[in-house]
Prior knowledge:
- This protein is α/β, with parallel strands linked by helices.
- It has 13 helices and eleven strands.
- α1 crosses α9 (193-212).
Amino acid sequence: MPEKIIRVGHSPDPDDAFMFYGLSSGKVKLEGIRIEHMLEDIQTLNERAMRAELEVTAISAHAFPHVADKYWIMATGASMGEGYGPVIVSRKYRTLAELKGKAVATPGKLTTATLLFRIYTEGIANVDVPFDQIMDRVTSGEFDAGLLIHEGQITYAREGFNKVLDFGELWERETDGLPLPLGLDVVRKDLGEEMARTLSAGLKESIHYGYTHQEEAIPYALRWGRGIDAKLGERFVKMYVSDLTVDMGEKGKRALDELFRLGAGKGLLPPVPEVVLY
């Protein structure tokens, strides 16, 4: 019987690379299934999910309400900030009040960072640009501030930026300690529930393999560490590949429900039925 090919989309980032190391290295195998890895930036993956192109894909939590008719959320593979998250930074300014009437570079229409920006700020314009151009375009003066995701969240201070707001800190205060759901892995509904659970279990095994073989998985993950050394790279990986990544559980589910409730309440998201995890 021929192998079933499952295309898995994920970002070329250290945390995603770490999660998928077990599968991509062949150390974790799924009987009768061949995984094809598709590495693309998260905004592109969000757009592909809107068209249901890939069987399994990473997406922004923001994107899920728009694809809930096509995909289920996997209990494993989520990126959640625990007191940290996307950060608004500026060369000149230090408060949101100072940014009123000014322009902030944000990392993509469907990213969770941009959703948080729109939920929690008023009177500040945003313009979506590729996430890896934000620091340079703030430095050049094109934008007054930028909203950073990925490695920029832990490197901005050494590059001379001021922190205006960390959405992870704000979210933790506003939600009485819930984690901040940023990224999810989803599985296409037409595969059926049995295959969905098999793939979710395979990803969980891959994450477990990475954690129990860090001497292999961390150097592999750091191939995608843009401008960060091994120490910072390991810190970044462990920020976003946590126990909640292995299984978001009830706490992660409540956090997602809260994000979707806030977004829908502001008219930024379509209503989502209760979150079900696979």
